[in-house]
């Protein structure tokens, strides 16, 4: 029975899941964090039990050593459940990687080279890959890229109307992110509807702290809202999403903001946090219900943008067969789903209020009315399972 280890590494932490592939069941999961800082911490969950340790963790290699110790001490045994592959999440695959790829030294060099485009993400992933390739030297390692699913976009969707020479020199184009989730959800939607993926026009809203929406035609991404970086598109927990770029020039000239200050303003101090001082939709919903105008405006700006993208992608696809919501906000907040699709009855979209309110966590639920031409679904995403599936497919 095949088992795959999934690893998601950042520069100072990594998470892992050991997944048994036949039932897509998590055998164990865990976290190693504060690598390279004062005191590091590990967490290992096996069965119903959770084990925690604190220790100095100077680097990722030490972290993988601690992970192996946790498996040896608390189980499950990696001899009994020996992984056939390690699947690594890598944020940026640039225009080079259009599918999950077995990691070789050359692939590592390419991931390193792409750090120019993802300075906050690719270096950490690479540290995790190097350490994991040492810890699990006898099995193949596979890189699964957040960008790869969107490499099917046509040039008119991924090209910015920017001076061509400048764009080419600096590799500026739309890459798109959250691809692993969009792929997983669009495939789950097809299975749920019992229809071939190749026949479906889909729109998937991934609404977590980071948020993006993708238009998918026959299983292929044809348009997505995140762009050169994950900053573009929808309003997010702390990111602006779409913005007139001249605002940056204005702030540089008038407010003398530096590049780092602008970066932090756009990525960390804006979005729902910037509008209402909080990024958790539970808080914002409660405040809006209690009459807080700032919270209400933040929700209105958020859902206004969702509707704009729904309309745009319906136009790009020529209508849709299914629209899905996923991730923290998409799976848990009925009023956001309702507002996102309000006014789209003309396009055959009708959300049933009772089904929408009754959608249960962790289950695929159809929330559209029986007479809705477009099926509207809530689908729990599972990026780890998707990474494991793709890793297994590469090595099989
Ligand atoms: P990430 O992008 O960090 O993976 P998630 O997909 O976990 O994010 O989504 C996190 C966000 O989802 C939270 O900031 C919160 O706004 C929202 N969220 C999660 N659970 C709930 C819930 N039960 N009710 C309302 N909002 C929720």
From TrEMBL:
<feature type="binding site">
    <location>
        <position position="383"/>
    </location>
    <ligand>
        <name>Mg(2+)</name>
    </ligand>
</feature>
<keyword id="KW-0460">Magnesium</keyword>
<comment type="subunit">
    <text>Homodimer.</text>
</comment>
<keyword id="KW-0963">Cytoplasm</keyword>
<feature type="binding site">
    <location>
        <position position="89"/>
    </location>
    <ligand>
        <name>substrate</name>
    </ligand>
</feature>
<dbReference type="GO" id="GO:0008776">
    <property type="term" value="F:acetate kinase activity"/>
</dbReference>
<keyword id="KW-0547">Nucleotide-binding</keyword>
<dbReference type="Pfam" id="PF00871">
    <property type="entry name" value="Acetate_kinase"/>
</dbReference>
<dbReference type="GO" id="GO:0006083">
    <property type="term" value="P:acetate metabolic process"/>
</dbReference>
<dbReference type="GO" id="GO:0000287">
    <property type="term" value="F:magnesium ion binding"/>
</dbReference>
<comment type="pathway">
    <text>Metabolic intermediate biosynthesis; acetyl-CoA biosynthesis; acetyl-CoA from acetate: step 1/2.</text>
</comment>
<dbReference type="InterPro" id="IPR023865">
    <property type="entry name" value="Aliphatic_acid_kinase_CS"/>
</dbReference>
<comment type="similarity">
    <text>Belongs to the acetokinase family.</text>
</comment>
<keyword id="KW-0479">Metal-binding</keyword>
<keyword id="KW-0067">ATP-binding</keyword>
<feature type="site" description="Transition state stabilizer">
    <location>
        <position position="239"/>
    </location>
</feature>
<feature type="binding site">
    <location>
        <position position="15"/>
    </location>
    <ligand>
        <name>ATP</name>
    </ligand>
</feature>
<dbReference type="GO" id="GO:0005524">
    <property type="term" value="F:ATP binding"/>
</dbReference>
<feature type="binding site">
    <location>
        <begin position="328"/>
        <end position="332"/>
    </location>
    <ligand>
        <name>ATP</name>
    </ligand>
</feature>
<protein>
    <recommendedName>
        <fullName>Acetate kinase</fullName>
        <ecNumber>2.7.2.1</ecNumber>
    </recommendedName>
</protein>
<dbReference type="InterPro" id="IPR043129">
    <property type="entry name" value="ATPase_NBD"/>
</dbReference>
<keyword id="KW-0808">Transferase</keyword>
<dbReference type="GO" id="GO:0005737">
    <property type="term" value="C:cytoplasm"/>
</dbReference>
<feature type="binding site">
    <location>
        <position position="8"/>
    </location>
    <ligand>
        <name>Mg(2+)</name>
    </ligand>
</feature>
<keyword id="KW-0418">Kinase</keyword>
<dbReference type="InterPro" id="IPR004372">
    <property type="entry name" value="Ac/propionate_kinase"/>
</dbReference>
<feature type="binding site">
    <location>
        <begin position="280"/>
        <end position="282"/>
    </location>
    <ligand>
        <name>ATP</name>
    </ligand>
</feature>
<comment type="function">
    <text>Catalyzes the formation of acetyl phosphate from acetate and ATP. Can also catalyze the reverse reaction.</text>
</comment>
<feature type="site" description="Transition state stabilizer">
    <location>
        <position position="178"/>
    </location>
</feature>
<feature type="active site" description="Proton donor/acceptor">
    <location>
        <position position="146"/>
    </location>
</feature>
<dbReference type="InterPro" id="IPR000890">
    <property type="entry name" value="Aliphatic_acid_kin_short-chain"/>
</dbReference>
<dbReference type="GO" id="GO:0006085">
    <property type="term" value="P:acetyl-CoA biosynthetic process"/>
</dbReference>
<feature type="binding site">
    <location>
        <begin position="206"/>
        <end position="210"/>
    </location>
    <ligand>
        <name>ATP</name>
    </ligand>
</feature>
